[in-house]
Amino acid sequence: MALTGQSTDKALLDAEHELWRTSFSYIKSMAIKSALDLCLADAIHHHGGSATLSQIVARVTLHPSKIQCLRRLMRVLTLSSVFTIQPDGGGGEPLYALTPLSRLLVGSQNSASIMAFVLNPVLVTPFLGIGEWFQHALPDPSFFEHTHGKALWEMAGHDAALDAVVNSAMGPWSLTAASLWTSLSGRPATFSVG
């Protein structure tokens, strides 16, 4: 059935909306990475599960000139359901609260290690070149190896910071990481964690 008139306009508008929404969906991932880097969930948890921006700022490492930027980041994180916001937490400041999602980012036994791995630029960058990778004949290296010129494990062996991120993610999340490795490399994961 062909679309005509207003239904065509509506369908195109809906399609354009979906295209923009999908294209900018990486912002949510990068906002979560920033929340991890700044330990925002830990700062809110320290105050009993809800905190004002001033209380959060007092607990995180943040240059004073970036407080307004943190307010914007918190807005993205609340719109993404990472945190909730209540209009007045006292003194006219909004109160940010943990959600089930952000509770996973609190403390040392949490999902932060696997998120730090998944959102690491070394792991994210290959996804920007998938289109180019598809233009090469098989057998071809994985798109990770195509981007970096070596396997993840080889890179981690030469980069102490990356090695720490990989090892931290492997312990509690070895099955998830093995699945991710298999999908990135096209080869089964055969490693031991310990």
TrEMBL record:
A GO term, aspect molecular function: protein dimerization activity
InterPro entries: COMT-like, COMT_dimerisation, SAM-dependent_MTases_sf, WH-like_DNA-bd_sf, WH_DNA-bd_sf
Keyword Transferase: yes
Pfam name, any one: Dimerisation
GO biological process: one example: methylation
Superkingdom as given in the UniProt entry: Eukaryota
O-methyltransferase dimerisation domain segment(s): 20-107
Keywords on record: Methyltransferase, S-adenosyl-L-methionine, Transferase
Protein name in UniProt: O-methyltransferase dimerisation domain-containing protein
